Records
---
Amino acid sequence: MTGATILGGIAGPDLSRAERDFFRAADPWGFILFARNVDTPDRLRRLTDALRETVGRDAPVLIDQEGGRVQRMRAPHWTDWPAPLDQAGRGERAIWLHHHLLAQELRAVGIDADCAPVLDIARDDTHPFLRNRCLGPDPDTVIRLGRAAAQAMLAAGVLPVVKHMPGHGRARVDSHKDLPVVEAALDELRATDFAPFRALADLPMAMTAHIRFTAIDDAPATASAAVIDLIRREIGFDGLLMSDDIGMQALSGSPAERAAATIAAGCDLVLSCNETPAQMEEIVAAAGPMSPRAALRAEAGLALRRAPLAGDTAALRAELAALGGLAA
């Protein structure tokens, strides 16, 4: 049965025989790529084809390609995109063009899901690791621009993965290194941080936040049954819910313990980005197979992988350049 995992511990731009054998046995639902896996377009396309061959199906291949600091594919073969918050200042059309053109580049090399857009609200005290990855300083702006970004990617044949549910904008520390703690009242969170995710709850996939909300639970959202229940019932998200990278230090315990806690809390999938083969083996065992409900959510999400919308790419790039969102 397909495992409840998305795996990314691929050492380089080509699959080794050992990696092929491991992925064939582990049968993860999908894969995620990083800069270490990116070389030329032809080589990257061979890698995405090889990953799908290992599991014998059209498995999704994900990447983090937002713009600014977070983009795994860069010049000279791909566009170096502005940070989302900078692009947001150019308006809704610039956000649509940014995400549509970006997604075209992904789709051309076999990548069909992007961990974007970020629906967290940029506050004055949002940690720098996150702030310029956001789309705006208030819920209405983030909702409007987040919808444009998601629709643009879907039109290019790429599935958006919104993040970080139910809201990471109040984080004052980097969750890669420590656990952010948010002490805001629940009513305040509902009116602000949760609002973009509630408004875009119809989108197919989302990623959790490694952040503790003291008004809800002592555990970080990814490992909190109470937070996952709020995501499902109050925010109304019934799409495919994956963890953020379980290798981040906001979580505690061994990789296997983190994976088990993620699934026990109610996440559909465990995202493992940088673990060793031995650690991935433990994670696969701890996560187990996808639940029947998760499999249905996954099927519904993958059904939205449509053929890209036909269009004049050169004209779209020229339009974005005229808006100041792309070097001419």
Note: Residues 3-322 form a domain with the TIM Barrel fold (CATH 3.20.20.300).
---
Amino acid sequence: MTTANADPYAKFKAAQREAWALFAPMETFTTMPAAKLVKFAQVAPGQRVLDAACGTGVVAVTAARRGAKVSGLDLSPALLERARRNATVAAVDIDFVEGDAEALPYPDASFDVVLSQYGHIFAPRPAVAVQEMLRVLKAGGRIAFSTWPPELFMGRQFTFIARYLPPPPSAVAAAPSPALWGDPDVIRERLGESVTDLLFERDTMIMPSLSPQHTRIAQEATIAALVKVVDSLKNDPAKLAQLRAEYEAMISEVFEDNAIHLHFIMARAVKL
């Protein structure tokens, strides 16, 4: 694994390690998309599967319940604790480890399938993350992941929140937006000639909610960057009110029948 001296993003990743602890309550909404990703990836009994940036383990547990031999890796100790508890409740055996998607602690060609649900997109160096995910994948194995298209709500949310944050350190500022992982052309470019049979499929995550305001309040408690923004504006009530009004207007665009409808894209390819 990279050291603090060698990795220019070490401080950023340390902050992420703590910030992602807030995400655990969102696992309820990511559970159904996890099943869709595992099915899309054609996970089968006996296969060795890696869930990279596994969070609370919803993809890992889903794959293990299909009979796969699963490993899960994440930066956040708090999310891994939740993942282990989820695996115990589901009565599946999964090897969860704390680690970095840009420095996977596995030998070359260790897995038949490598998965990631909205996780690897936050690695600050996409080329490094892709190289690592493909390195640990066997030739003929499948890489599959779910991401957020940049032009839709979740992709736009990254840009929206960033407008209210102070400028990041230069190294972090150079990192591309996670939303670029939702652009099929970008995915094609990043996977490059190392894969074949690249396939895309679109689907929708449904988040039940009583109102856009309820959604905004829930997001303010679980999205670390939004928590940071709200805290930074506590002494500027006018600007905070503006932030919340703009955010609720965005949410209203995807709010229907007491639910938020979040469109995502899945990509699957075979390693050459």
Note: The radius of gyration is 18 Å.
---
Amino acid sequence: MEIQQFGTWQRFKDGDLIIDYGKYIRMMPIVIKGTIKVYRLDEKGNEILLYYLSSSESCSMAYSCCVEAKKSEIKAIAEDNVELIAIPHVKLDEWLCVYPSWKNYIMRSFNERFIELLKSIESIAFHKLDERLISYLKEKQRLSGSSVNKASHYLIADELST
């Protein structure tokens, strides 16, 4: 398949920067192993956690920046050891027109990220902090497969935007 032919296998360690604000994105990551945190910066310089990416998932924002040849409005950081396939930007549009399965994958990815963003907004607007914390911890457990969370209180508060 062309993904194997044109994609580049990349590895990142916990805390490594994968995509940074203001940089041109020349690839779209597809996560093979591990978890990636995706952040956005507001006009005051505050970061907010948008969503996590895990196995078989991709970043819709990276896709959008690649296709439109614009600078990144997100930052992506490895949550743990991450392995991904970097799809070169020159193939994204081409495959969309040629492979219906690729088109379905991209559309499903956009839909999943959109639903996650709606859930985040709903959580911030309508749920108490204790409910948000429980939800956050359950999601971390689901992603890591472990009931042990090594995050500091500061990191948890930061990710919950409190």
Note: The beta strands are 8-12, 17-19, 27-33, 36-41, 47-53, 74-78, 82-88.
---
Amino acid sequence: MTNFIRNAWYAACWSNELEREPQAKTILGEDLALFRTETGVAAAVEDCCPHRFAPMSLGSVEGENIVCGYHGMQFDCAGVCVDIPGQKNIPGRTKIRAYPVVEKHKLV
């Protein structure tokens, strides 16, 4: 078993590599979906939709949200579900884990 320092920053990719199409990355054994929003904000969320556990990295980005490719659930950069197709009520517990992201020295 490998031990990682968890309360530290790790480089995920170069800034110019991160585009609007989500990318799958594994950092410290955690599967992440990295993406850039329409306004250019870099974001990272867990790479697993809470509905059917589909990889978020196989979805798309619409505006400021990442969209699950399986059923179209949308999550903001904080991991909060903001839209479920065909459903008006969004349960408050419908979230995915979000990770803090910083761009510095051309790294994400």
Note: The domain at 15-99 is CATH 2.102.10.10 (Rieske Iron-sulfur Protein).
